[in-house]
């Protein structure tokens, strides 16, 4: 199975243009399935529908969410489709396995007050503080993913038009605009802190966001930076980099931006992926209505 898996991973990276992170997640899901196969003393080429049902039952018994099960099933379905297309198996046992309906979870987002606290936390008098401020500003100003952030090169930025060329999922390019606060943070970092970091370590890097040694930063590195900022800000909540993306989309919709524009800015292929933010916006409208409508207040005061 090792050879088939390696070939499959190379295929989805080189042919399907999947990101390295996505390919790694597929590999993890498939290796987990292989572990289950080995325990049952079965060959991966002999897996059938009943065997898969047993595996899914085992996942549910582990109290995994339907979303997690759906993701693992998607990885395995793609892998076995690859095996079938390359005539390594006669039939695809995953072809008739239904994907569980995903749980509809409203994305968590930050309010303006929390954002102000977070954005004022980095010490912009230091090189790393300037970098951290830039990370926050770019993520919130554009709504991009962390994986997209770490791949931004200086040459991708049009400072005059205030636009960034983003390489999204499937190597699809899009242009995202940004505002004056983001421009100021980037210029400050590029002209001061970033130069000092590169000069200190005698390095040169084409990417906008760098680590303390002057090299391209990783997604995990950005996550650690956000964690440290939240600790310094003393916010009693978990804040992930993706929450800034959620905040970006929710705040745009709350301010009247149309959903198709938000879809394009986020780089969503499907409008369904963007529509989840309308639920958040609608919940906010309902809350404001119940709080502010005079008849509701009158009834509550009786």
What does this protein look like?
The chain is mainly alpha-helical and 302 residues long. The protein folds into two domains: 2-85, Orthogonal Bundle (DNA polymerase, domain 1), CATH 1.10.150; 112-250, hpI Integrase, Chain A (Orthogonal Bundle). 60% of the residues lie in helices and 4% in strands. The chain has helices spanning 2-14, 20-39, 49-61, 66-85, 112-119, 127-142, 146-149, 180-200, 219-233, 241-254, 259-266, 271-292, 294-301, and strands spanning 157-158, 163-167, 173-177. A three-stranded antiparallel β-sheet has the order 1-2-3, with no helix packed on it. The longest helix is centred in the C-terminal third of the chain and has 22 residues, at 271-292.
Q: How would the global form be characterised? A: globular
Measure the end-to-end span.
71 Å
Instruction: Note poorly predicted spans.
Output: 298-302
| SS summary, helix count | 13
Q: Which CATH-level-2 architecture of the largest domain?
A: Orthogonal Bundle
The helix/strand series, from N terminus to C terminus, equals HHHHHHHEEEHHHHHH
- Whole-number average pLDDT? 86
Main-sheet strand order equals: 1-2-3
Tell me the domain tally: 2
Task: Using the coordinates above, name the CATH class of the largest domain.
Answer: Mainly Alpha
Structural class: mainly alpha
Residues in β-strands, percent = under 5%
Which value, in Å, is the CA radius of gyration? 23 Å
Number of strands: 3
Helix content: 55-70%
CATH superfamily of the largest domain: Intergrase catalytic core
Largest sheet: 3 strands, antiparallel
Please name the CATH topology of the largest domain.
hpI Integrase, Chain A
